Amino acid sequence: MRKAPRNTSRPSFQKFGAHLLASCFFFALMLFSLNPANGTEKQLVLLNWSEYFDPEVLADFEKEHGIKVTESYYETDEIRTEMLINSDGKGYDLILCNGVNVALYAKKNWLAPIPEDKIPNLQYVDQRWREGFPDTKTYGVPFFWGTLGIAYRSDLITKPVTGWHDLFVPDEMLRGKIVMIKDSRDLIGMALKAKGYSANSTEPEELDQAKELLLKQKPFVRSYSYVSLSEQSSMVTGQTMMAMIYNGDALMLQEHEPAIKFVQPKEGGSLWCDYFLIARSSPSKEAAYTFLNYIHRPEIMARLAQYAYYASTNTRAHDHLPADFLTNPTIYPSKEVLDKSELLQQLPPRTVKKINSIFNLVIQ
After folding, report:
1. Which residue among 155, 217, 221, 301 is buried most deeply as judged by most CB within 10 Å?
2. Do 65 and 157 fall within a single domain?
3. Residue 234 to residue 179: CA distance in whole angstroms
4. Which CATH number goes with the domain that contains 205?
């Protein structure tokens, strides 16, 4: 368990900065790899969310196995994809990816299959998540799972917050006080849920209704981004009073401001699972297998889960987690919440094109 609050703000760079950073990182890595004395089997480059992985666990892994792990960060799922497009999937050994994109990355030939016999601790991973999305059984090692919901300032908002309708059709006092995730599937998917439709809808009429809902909400939105999780966060200062947020991140914010509450929307939300993938171009696959097996030691996965406030896909890790963690409904939602929530699915190209068009119209 963490001993003190962390500075957990996501990187604040915009897309151009992310592309520049990815390009510089990629070319530096290529130059580095030209030197045969570098010993590439003793290093791993991990593409990850910022502040998502316990640095003490990384330090312990490096000490035990003599393998250096370097992290490179992305701000959104879509920026991660763009970074990989820019490098043609090269420059990284391990990629942390949401389940819905695994099949896409495999189709682009960016991923290496993961032999089960190389990672014995996969025996502790819940089969539901191993097979949660297309191609995850072949290419992915499950990490955390969670939900998407609403964080709000209970001391500043007097009306009860119970569902997506409160976020998408807000009270006048919330004008300019809302932060929405800058991700097309999350943004439009939850607008669909607010209207009573599936987050995976392919119906043009339903998508148009989601678009109109988002456009009406737009004057209330402070930014399309992701709230900082540090003590300087706009949620902590009160400049933001409501935000779309992942469940564990809401708990991180509560470290700085207990009045921040999290709601699993009554209409249901989205379920997600993150997976570690091994890049096909990686020269350090054996080191990657060692890393993945290490993090799925039950006691290690328990440490990682407590650090990030997310549910573990490793069922044996539960034996090492405290009761108040396992019974926290924000981390482990009730069956009723889960039954109303959906895993995002791959959509037909025509629907993806329409979603991207709506997204660009809303965030511009």
Report:
1. 301
2. no
3. 9
4. 3.40.190.10
Q: Is 330:310 a contact under the CB 8 Å cutoff? A: no
Distance CA 170, CA 7 (A): 30
Residue pair 354/184 in contact by the 8 Å Cβ criterion: no
- The rounded distance, in Å, linking the Cα atoms of 312 and 335 is 17
Does the residue 9 lie in any domain?
no
Same domain for 253 and 358, yes or no, is yes
C-alpha span between 110 and 103 (Å, rounded): 10
pLDDT score of 175 more than 60: yes
167's tokens: 């976020």
Terminal CA-CA length for the chain: 40
Q: CA torsion sign, 273 to 306 to 78 to 194?
A: positive
**pLDDT tens per residue, range 104-122:** 999 999 999 999 999 999 9
- Are 123 and 154 within one domain? no
The reply to whether 137 and 285 lie within a common domain is yes
Q: What is the DSSP string of 52-65?
A: -S-HHHHHHHHHHH
Q: Is residue 7 part of a domain?
A: no
- Looking at residue 3, the DSSP 8-state letter turns out to be S
Mean pLDDT of 254-262: 96
The residue range of the domain holding 187 is 147-270+334-363
335-340: Cβ within 8 A, 24+ apart: 337/147, 337/264, 337/268, 337/269, 338/271, 339/268, 340/266, 340/267, 340/268, 340/269
